[in-house]
Design brief:
Length: about 375
Amino acid sequence: MASEPCPGCWHRSTDHLTPNFPTIFLLVAPLAILPWAVAEAIWMTLTAGCFILAAFLMMNVGGEYAPRFSAFMIYLFLINSELLLALGNAAGIVVGLSMIAAWCILQNRFAFAGALCLALALVMKPHDAGLIWFYLLLVGGALRKRALQTLAMAGALAGAAALWTWHIAPQWLQELISNESAIMARGGINDPGPASGGNFGVNLIISLQTIVSRFKDNPHFYNAVVFLICGALLFVWMRKTLQSPFTPELAWFALAAIVPLSMLFLYHRRYDARLLLLAVPACAMLWRRGGAIAGWMLALNLAVIVATGDFFWIVLLSITHYQGISVAFSIFSAPVTLLALATFSVWVYWRRTPESKDAKSAAAALSS
């Protein structure tokens, strides 16, 4: 028997195709040198801690307008977020950091810490935090300065991670491209088409490509269709953002519109949809005023919580044993409800007009 290269050392190898950028190693590498039980405990604590803090901060804003309503919405999100913790995916930390950053920057409290949180979220999963950063860039004033500050920190982190990775794995870029091609190819685990090898069970892909690909399973076709639909909504959202004076109230409506839209045109799974907690403050503002718009916003958000949550699908798919109409319903429900919510939220944001006194005070704070 051949002797071990390092007697007394424990060796473990694993084969895994990772789609993550090397910047993720900045977070996981320090944990890799710890015993598994310790590293797992730290990772789960970070995931749960970031998400619970984010939920508390959303309650802090929404509670000013409709405390019971906000608590009800947040409760529904929390009981439907089992996979966020159970899977241990980095999205759990990124979702929490993104919401913490939004609260810090928009409330102008611990704004530098918020910029750092957003920078960490960007380098880990830019498709989750990217449009939040993009909103800050479009608004201008002090928020644009925070966006540029975030970009500088993210660039420094990404540069350090890239140089480190190039030193220890010179072929990392080619390997990353190869991994992405393998998992996004027809039948791969991240393929949104009907032949997908990973789009089943509770943790489904929720992007709009999963529906359009049923008409024609060709990435050039379904990506073009999805980008056209989402691009039209994004154009309306951008025009409103550029034309409107900044107020904290209007900012929450902007984020409530952009988050469901971001889920549709790029690859996301159900755990990423916990970012929709950012819509709670805007929903609370509408609920306080009452009316049909508040009722429709509540109905659509409830539909999205059910369609992208864990509790309902765990029960239903366990009863049906992943057979029959329940599987088709689980595949189609999330993209359809997200598209309806995104369209309605962009329309509400477009109609929203800040009060003149709020706009003046916010403009003074924004320019400082």
